[in-house]
Amino acid sequence: MKTSKGFLLLEAILAILIASIAVTTFSTIIKATHENNFQMERKTDQALARHIMKTNNLKKITIHDHEYQDEKNKY
């Protein structure tokens, strides 16, 4: 009976270890995906701002609470 209890304890420890590794991996993947989406949104907004400023002859535009200025008139 003692070997069975020891085996159950070892099995429980391994299960907790595997679960913690899975949660850590999952959270790391979610964080990286969020950061990637944020960077892509920034690049898309920047390209959209350039296009709108060029086609409408504007010097400034605000997209998603970020102000973009024409690069020629920056200084």
From TrEMBL:
This is Type II secretion system protein. It comes from Lactobacillus gigeriorum DSM 23908 = CRBIP 24.85.
